[in-house]
Amino acid sequence: MNFTLFVTALLTGLGFVGLVTVLAWLLGPRSYNAQKEDPYECGIPSRGRTWMQFRVGYYLFAILFLMFDVETMFLFPWAVVMRSLGPAGLVSVLFFLFILVLGLAYAWRKGALKWE
Prior knowledge:
By secondary structure, this protein is mostly helical.
């Protein structure tokens, strides 16, 4: 019963998305000009090459920032219910922080935090 309901909802959703996509493609306005093909940043025309290579350090730094940003997102709900969790909650969050500190130590050792 539940599987049939799931498949029905999935097929209905996929059919609706496909129908709306086809209708938008058929009925949507079209205007072609060379300016629409130009890349831009925040409405400002770009100068020089638009496909530039960036150092991998920028991406590593961003991933580390996201990792610790997600850490704080998970720590807020824990802090709200900390008293009701008791010692088991404290042990679980310390394990969580230990895993994150291991990730930070690994990144530090590999030199991902050096900004050159």
